[in-house]
Records
---
Amino acid sequence: MKKLILDDLNRINVDEFKSATKTPIVVVLDDIRSLHNIGSVFRTSDAFLIEKIYLCGITATPPNKEIHKTALGATESVDWVYAENVMDVVQQLKAESVQVYAVEQVENSVMLNQFEVHAQTKYALVFGNEVKGVQQAVVNASDGVIEIPQLGTKHSLNVSVSAGIVIWDFFQKLNALQDSK
């Protein structure tokens, strides 16, 4: 097997990304402290054609040298908006008929592997602060809460890892729905 180089990968450019049909997912990052986590979520969002990222609260915004280190240009391809108050974003998305799901460990959460996506539905995935998680008010306002099953001794994952796992899961489930048509 030959390792592929960039030219072999046939990636789209930023203009093609902007005009491509997007995966019906928006990501909401609330009070994310680490610039590298923010950049990583941008890069993952680029990889799976995510529609938009909302950066809320203390979450830093591009342009930023530290975000760029992990985003590697994805801040140019993925649309993003800054909003001071995450609850305003949640209410706006719900008013637009977007299904809002917090990713958190709570009573009566749905395990990610058991969560069913639906065709013709746009989803918002809310990821919270690295220490405090998703705010209780956001959990209360969400249409539901998704939890990533974990079997080891640790009780949490890095927020950018969590975002990658959940985005990938939604992406492949949504594509499976499209393929079954």
---
Amino acid sequence: MRVTVAEDAVLMREGLVALLERFGHTVVAAVGDAPALLGAVRHERPDLVLTDVRMPAGDDDSGLRAAVTLRTDDPTLPVLVLSQYVQPVAAEALLDTGGGTGIGYLLKDRVADVTGFAAAAAQVAGGGTVLDPEVVHQLVRRRRDPVSRLSPREREVLDLMAQGRSNGEIAELLVLSGAAVSKHVRSLFTKLDLPAEAGGHRRVLAVLAWLRSGGPG
């Protein structure tokens, strides 16, 4: 199996390379950032991409975004993502590509189980889906009607957002100040786990969450 590895921590990257080679795989590229990952994959056409979510660590989700880009370009490209902790939004973004097949999302702690990690890599490369138990737990919690986390006032604001109302119109209809409406909107975005990176799309994503929950009530 030909593998491209992306990990900004040098020791971790070298460890992953050694581990993969121990199981008879060929690492065709080992890189430390998202742009290098995109270039390496497009040049080498590997059988599996193994990437960290955050590169550099603690910065942003550039590794995950690169993985989503690669999967969008080629939905059949197997990708196994490693992360220090569970990021449900990132996991869902990845699972939404390619019909959810040939995808893996594991916590880095799982690499300590060498045999299990190697088996997971092979399973993803073969078109399977491998999710860390903690990732599954977080996704289940996330999918339990996220709208139920909202306060009654936040639900009213979301209901009006779903009707296409602007913040100014919501303020007038609910007899609130513009600042109060903005505060409620920010709060409901947070409770619905909508990332700041989504920008203006967060209003759309919030409405989708409202629709999945069955609407008002």
---
Amino acid sequence: MENNALLELDNQLCFALYACAREVTKLYRPFLDELGITYTQYVTLLALWEKDEVPVKELGRRLYLDSGTLTPLLKKLESMKLLRRDRDPQDERSVIVRLTDDGRALKERAAVIPERVFCQTSLSPEEIASLRGQLQQLTADVHTRSCEGSRD
């Protein structure tokens, strides 16, 4: 590919992923509005519904969010009474995130969201699984390479 073509917007992997992510996230908005939560709050709750009572650091790693983004998000969910944050009695430096009864109950109402979103795409279940697998692999590869290049 020639240099000028390399810099065309439509030839950028990052832009294709960005635009697609924005459009897919828009599909979730009306369903999440019904629950009174944002997309970022939703994925945080998904992680907690999968594994409750986790340290903030572990949750941040799972969601690919730094503490500057995660802390206000958790504070908001706590003010909504969907979770609580408590110091770990074993390690006062660590904060454990726990769902409240309201947070656990919201899972039942959210259970219909994946199917409702899926119905708005033109992909078959097999195509979605394949695409998700490719994206997960790309994320893992990029994350591994970026972590190898960073200093702790």
